[in-house]
Amino acid sequence: MNSTVTFYVTRHGETLLNHLHKAQGWVDSPLTERGIQAASQLGMQLKNVQFSSAFSSDTSRALQTGKTILTAQGQNELQVITDKRLREWCLGCWEAENNDKFISSMMNELQIQNDFSELNFRLPEVHEIIYKSDITGMVEPFDMITDRLESFLKDTADKFTHLNNPNVLIVTHAFTIKTLLYLFSKEMLRKKPKIKNVDIITIKWDGKSFSILA
To answer: Which of 19, 21, 33, 88 is the catalytic position?
Structure first.
C-alpha cells in the first residue's frame, strides 16, 4: 500500500504591491519586512513537520517566502525548487490595478451584492471576465490553470509516494490556492473567502485522490 503524501500549501508573505492594495498576478514585487516576519512565524509554527521537499512558483516573492519558512523551521539545507505550474493566474490588463476597483468590477459584472464568498464560489466566471477583457494575450484559459496544478500535484505525489508518509511544502498564490479549493473542496470557497498572506491549507494524496484537510 502506498503511503499518503501531505502537501502544506501556503500563500507567499506580504509584498510591496499587497501593501499598496494592488492586484498581483504574474507581476512580481519583493516581500515587505512584515511579509518576511510572517513567513518566519509560519516556519516556527511548522517546526515539528519534517519536509521531504519544498517547491514554490517561479516568482521571487514565493521563492523568498519558501526559503524564509525553511530557515525559521530548521530545514534551511532543503532547496526550494521553483516550478512554473505553481504560478498565480495572469491577470492581463488587471495587473497592478487597485484591488478595490478590481473586486468591485468583478462583483458588478457578475451582479453580486458585496458578497465576497459568492464571488469566490463563482471562480471560473471571475476568470472568464479576466480572460475576455485581456488585451495582452497572456491570460491562460481556466482549464489550462487547473491542468497545470493537477499535473504538478500528481507528478510530485508520484515522486514521493515511496517514502513513509512524506510532507511537501508548497508556496504559491491566492488565486492558485482558490483554484485548488475549487478542484478538491469547492464548498470551502464559501467558508474561506479570503486567502491571506501566509494562510495555509493541507492537501492529502491517498494514492487515488486529493482531499483538503484544512
So the answer is: 88
For residue range 55-114, what is the model confidence (pLDDT) as tens digits?
Answer: 999 999 999 999 999 999 999 999 999 999 999 999 999 999 999 999 999 999 999 998
What is the rounded CA–CA span in Å between residue 211 and residue 61?
Answer: 27
Say if residue 14 carries a ligand binding annotation.
Answer: yes
Q: Is 148 a known ligand-binding residue?
A: no
Beta strands in the chain (DSSP E): 5-11, 51-56, 80-82, 167-172, 200-205, 210-212
Query: What is the CB neighbour count within 10 angstroms for residue 101?
Result: 13
DSSP 122-184: THHHHHHHHHHT-SSS-PPPHHHHHHHHHHHHHHHHHHHTTSSS-EEEEEE-HHHHHHHHHHH
* 88 carries an active-site annotation: yes
One-letter amino acid for residue 73 of the chain = Q
Measure the CA angle with vertex 46, ends 43 and 50; round to 5°: 110
Cell of 101: 476597483
Is this model's pTM higher than 0.90 or not? yes
Q: In angstroms, rounded to a whole number, what is the distance separating the alpha carbons of residues 45 and 61?
A: 20
Q: What whole-number distance in Å separates Cα of residue 118 and Cα of residue 206?
A: 30
